[in-house]
Structure formats: C-alpha cells, structure tokens
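Question: does this match?
>
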Amino acid sequence: MIKSERNLADDNSNIAPVQHLIGDNTADNKSNNSGNNTTIINTVASSSVTENKSNNSRNNTFTNQSVLVTGGSGFLGRHIVSVLRSHAPEVKGICVLDPRPFEPLSGLSDENPECVTYFQGSITDPVMLRKAMEGVHSVYHIAGKISFGTFPDFNEMNRINIQGTEEVIKACLEKDVCRLIFCSTVDVAIGYHDIINGCEVTTAAPPIKFLFPGYPESKHRAECIVLGANQQKTKNCGTLHTLSLRANVMYGEGDPYYITSGLRNAAGSNGTLYRVGAMAAKFQPVYAGNTAWAFICADRALARKSSLGGQFYYIPDDTPIQSTFNFIKPFLEIRGFKLSTFSLPYGLVYYGLLGLEWIAKLLSPIYRITLPAESYSIRYINMDLYFSREKATRELGFQPIFFPKDAIARCLSYYRDVKL
C-alpha cells in the first residue's frame, strides 16, 4: 500500500514513494530553530576543472561568477552545488544558505577547486539573506516548505514559500543581484486530469483545483511573485532578471523522499511494496543531477539573453516514461524487496480513503487522526503525468548530461545502503 508523505519537518513521518516534490522543498523546515545562527564554513574541493568551456564562449563577460543556492544543504541543493563544481568553470564562488549544515554528497564529483561558503540560516531572516547575497551574481532559490498528509501545515508553507520568496526578492534588489532562478514544481499545473506531454502553452493557467492541498498553491503564488519581479531595478540601478523552472519528481543520491520512502514502506510490510491500480499510468521522474544542470543552463541563457526573463520552463530528462511501480522495481530488488504480485483495486482504495478523510476532518476539533495514506496520492500515481522540455532545450540550451542508464547506476549503491 502507498503511504503518504507527512510534514517533512517531522523526521519520523512516513513519506510516499510517489513523492512529487520538486525542488528541494525541505530546505527551510528548521528555520524557526536555526534562523539566527550565522556560522560560516568553507568547504574546499580538490582536483582541476576538466569540463569543455565552449558553452561559455558566447558571452565573454560571463566569467568569475558567484552563485547563492538557497536550500543548498538539501537533496536538490547539494546536487546543484556538485554540478556547479564539476560543470560550471565560470562559477568561482558558491554560497549556500540553509538552516542545516552543508555536507557534499558522497560519491559525486567535485572538480572545481573553489570553495563553498556556507551560511546557516533561513530565507525568512532578512539579515542572513543579505549576508549570503553579498557580491553574488545569481541566486538559485531552492529553499521551501512541503507539508502533505491528513492535515498539512498551510501557515508554515505560506510563511516560507510565499513570504520567504518575497524576502529573497527584496534582498536580490538591495544587493544588486543580476539573476534569480526559482525552483517551482510541476505540481502547480496538476489538477484532476491527466497531463500528456504538457508544455508551457497547454499549462499556462493553473488548474481549477490543485490535486494537492496547500503546497502547489503556495508554490504557484511564489512563482508568480518571482516572475513578476523580472526587470525590476536594483538598488544601484541594475536590473534583476528572473525565471522559473518547474521541476519533476526526482531520484538520485541523497534522495530522502521518492524511492527511499518506497523502500521504507516495503521494509515495513515484510519486504513487499503493494501496488495500487492497474499500473497503466505513465509517469516520468527525473535524475536530480539533470535537474541541477537545468539551473546552470537557465543561468547562462538568462545572462546571454535577458529577454528570456519572466517565463517558466519544464525540465524533464530522458528517464523512460513508465509506471511508478515499474520504475521503483530495481531499487526494491537491490534491497532484497519486491513488488506485490497483485494490485489493490484503485477505486476501493481511493474512495475508501476519501471516506476516512471526511471522518478525520469531522473529528478534528476533538481529536486529530493521521491516516496512513491520502486519496490525492493514490489518484496521483494512477494519472498520466509527463511534460515536454522542448522549450527549455530551444531557449535555455538544456539537454540532460546524465543518461538514464548511467543515472540509475550512479545511485543504486545509495539506495542499497540508505538508512530506512
């Protein structure tokens, strides 16, 4: 059976194997506890840059760049730092702002010898934001808050995802930041209908009703705020250019959500992950390293052509479009787990959960019941949901740098050994 994701600030929560996050959206979960910590740490990588520099020759001024990654200690954030080191020789300074300590992902290349400067703090802390942005050319805004489950934390999502994003923009304008690349999510386009090869034209407007409560709405509002800030003048008469990348569900080294939660659910069910539905729904997860690369492509493209600002882009890679359960199968097997030989009927599970949710909400003034799964997660894994990167390829020059076979091989050992 599929268990759903809880508030990710709670380390003991059960997280759905179909975790539909995007960016690294737990980056600011501990902001209440560590927002005032101003510890700065330098982490220095070794070896030399071997990446072909031809992609940078189009803009001779695009050198000696400095980048701030908000939420850089999280899943996607750490992949971005790793890809910046190994594939962005023009970036000479990398700053990370996150409530959690920064630790490089083990097993990933760190070829750029320049240091990473870590600022421990929250995007809701204006003072720390401005310290982290000092001298920065680009900001990759990854930090955010995700809360699903029977009773999502709407207030905290609004505080971090919306108000925190507003603080990021204010700091960008004050510190004369040139470019702001926002990590949005495909969830801002997902309602109660299939999306087949979705593109920026067919999903320009949000759905009448978001499939998930709270989170997509907060991310969509934040995305609108970011895109609305495009071409605003900075303090010293510069111009801020912004764009948004709508990230898919991701897998890869450091993944605490998608595949890992499926493994955790199987471990709690005697080594079996129970299927729900006919396994006919088509879904495309993305390797986190390729999503990270999209941010660098977007930054370079926006530096060359500022008219790209104010737009959003889908950034899937070449991971085969298939059933979520088919995709997770090799990761189960490497742990000695398996899929169930039968599927639970979709209608029975979905409508049964709807009924239980109604009862839970009815009783909530007296007693809060946390259900093991949510109806919207069951619906999600039984929908066709996949997108096209044609616009991102055409305008941002985004092409995945990790082939699916290589990406899966890179992270098999992580999923074999990750603590459940």
Summary: Confidence is low (pLDDT under 50) at residues 1-60. The two ends are 17 Å apart (CA to CA). The longest strand covers residues 239-247.
